[in-house]
Amino acid sequence: MRRLAIVGLVVLAVLAGQKKQRDQEASPGGKLVTLNISAVDGSGARPGDLTAEDFQILEDGKPQKIASFVKNDGKAHAGPALGPHEFSNLGGAAIPHATLILFDLLNDRMGTKGYAWNEILRTLATLENNDYVYMYLLGLDGMAYPVHALPDAEMAKQPDNGAWIRNAKADLDAAMNKSLRVRPIEMTDTNYRVITTLNALEAISSRLAAIPGRKNLVWITRGIPISIGPQRSYTGDFIDYSAQVRVLATALEQSQIALYPVDIAPVGMDPSTDASNGGPVGAAATPAVTGLGSADTLQQFADITGGQAFLNNNVHEAILQATSDAHMSYLIGYYPTKAGGDGKYRKIKVTCARKGVKVHSKAGYYAWGQTAISQNDQEKALDAAIGSQFDASQIGIHAVVSPSAKFYSSVHLEIGIDRAGLSDQQEGHLLVTLADMHNDGKKGVSPVKPLDYQAGNGPIPFPQERTVDGSVESVRVIVMDGRSNALGTLTIPIVKTDLSPAGK
Q1: DSSP 3-state of 484
Q2: Per-residue pLDDT tens digits for 170-194
Q3: What is the pLDDT of residues 435-452, one digit of tens each?
């Protein structure tokens, strides 16, 4: 059934062809470029009253016109009062933002984990913005071990006020004991370790993707090389990981995940040191072909995702920066004046007209063809939303459930989609799919449906009739903004009183 949903995305290009043509005529660059921006004033505070008129965007030195503007204030807003058989994802149950600390033990070859351990604990103890902060260890086997895990469905209904930090040392000790097992022999192969690290980053990020708003991932690591030479590769030749890093970083950025990598090399060590064995590139004791440019890897992740690289061993500052940025940011979109699809890197510079305010955003992006990259990202985002254990409220969804008047053993879902979280509140297209959640864990996913909407007042209507069997516990509605890839999900419980009678 999931394949049907993916096929639906392919069919979407044909079904929405006229709409895309109108978009491209109005905007020469075609695909919307989104920027997740943090702003800091002279006192170190994050101003929350900036408007679109306060920002100026340059792409390759040319001014760009802002097409969409959304403020992420990082707050769990109280939802509307609900009646019987009425549901909303704006009830304050969803996580409003998240900062995840990933302490990377897999790539630690310098004995620096003691320093990082102490800095993490010191920072957590003095952290002012400590709500919705989570932590994992990347173990020697490439698995993620939770210190304070992302929540499941029930935990997501309770505010996370950072109380776990009081026991952080004990929790970190316990997770460390589990993760510091004997390093598997295959991890001594540099290529295997690099691929394992990239896969681990992707897996952890897939859980973050369903959380609304900005998500910050602090990756405390010795890094991975951007390329390795013949003496370390299984091919006997150079292996370049630049493409994998760019694709993963782009996927993170489009899910509003900003990466804050921290190089925990010992103080005074050249940041270009080989991450695979700790020897400086070109040194007599270490062949220059073993691994190159771990600092380049970390910098690329930060530049593409809109985070900030800390190549100076500053764990403390990285965590402070990430947690503060999570509480106030701005999502800005523009259609580039230059058409995309050439695959070249385009530099972005964002400034603020307000005196004393400095902004930070991604440094640029690769102008890949619209279909090749966006369809893949949309599929991954939809899969993550379907599999997530809690609802995302970046796009508000409201539904009223009643027995269907048209079909037996069916429900009528009167679904309304809030315009406030959309990149264009007046006109655009959405991707919508529904998934039956069975009591045995199976999921029945419907094909993705394109939903064009026009200017109007109130929610965008999307009424549905859904035939369900006795094993369906709930129906999940997933809505994606076709321009910005913003997500909203709503899980609707199904009870017998909601069903139309079988003998009707």
Answers
A1: coil
A2: 999 999 888 887 778 888 888 889 9
A3: 999 988 888 888 888 899
CA atoms within 13 A on the CB side of 27: 19
Question: How far apart, in Å, are the Cα atoms of 325 and each of 39, 107, 218, 319, 392?
Answer: 8, 27, 12, 10, 20
CA angle 412, 418, 423 (to 5 degrees): 135
Residues 6+ apart with CB under 8 A from 92: 76, 77, 78, 79
For the CA atoms of 131, 38, 103, 254, the dihedral, rounded to the nearest 10 degrees, stands at: 110
DSSP codes of every residue in 98-164: EEEEEEE-TT--SS-HHHHHHHHHHHHHT-SS-TTEEEEEE-TTS-EEEEEPPP-TTGGGS---SGG
Domains by residue range for the chain, with CATH: 2-11+372-498 (2.60.40.150), 31-73+328-362 (2.60.40), 98-326 (3.40.50.410)
Query: At what angle are helices 370-387 and 190-208 packed, to 10 degrees?
Result: 70
How far is the C-alpha of 487 from the C-alpha of 449, rounded, in Å?
15
* Start-to-end Cα distance in the chain: 29
Q: Which residues have a Cβ under 8 Å from the Cβ of 156 and sit 6 or more positions away?
A: 93, 94, 95, 389, 390, 391
pLDDT at 369: 55
Range name among 226-235, 256-265, 455-464 with the lowest pLDDT average: 226-235
* DSSP letters spanning 238-284: -EE-HHHHHHHHHHHHHTTEEEEEEE-PPTTS-TTS-TTTSPPTT-T
Quote the CA–CA distance of 448 and 362 in Å, as a whole number: 30
Report whether 264 contacts 116 (CB < 8 A). Answer: yes
CA–CA gap between residue 126 and residue 439 (Å, rounded):
43
pTM, whole model, 2 decimals? 0.70
| Closest alpha carbon to 75 in 103, 102, 46 | 46
Residues 128-155: pLDDT tens digits?
A: 888 889 999 999 999 999 999 987 654 5
Tokens in use for 113?
């984990």
In the prediction, which pLDDT does 434 show?
93
Q: Are 292 and 229 in contact (CB under 8 A)?
A: yes
Decide: helix, strand or coil at residue 501: coil
* Cβ–Cβ < 8 Å for 135, 100: yes
Structure tokens at 176: 């460390």
What one-character-per-residue DSSP string does 406-465 give?
SSTTEEEEEEEE-STTSS-SSSEEEEEEEEEEETTS-EEEPPPEEEEE-S-SSPEE--EE
Query: Token pair 């069997």 is at which residue?
Result: 469
CA atoms of 174 and 146, how far apart (whole Å)? 10
Rounded-to-integer distance, Cα 100 and Cα 208, Å: 9
What share of the chain has pLDDT > 70, as a percent?
A: 78
Q: Is the four-CA dihedral 419, 421, 427, 432 of positive or negative sign?
A: negative
Q: Mark residue 268 as left, alpha or beta (left: phi above 0; alpha: psi -120 to 50; beta: remaining).
A: left
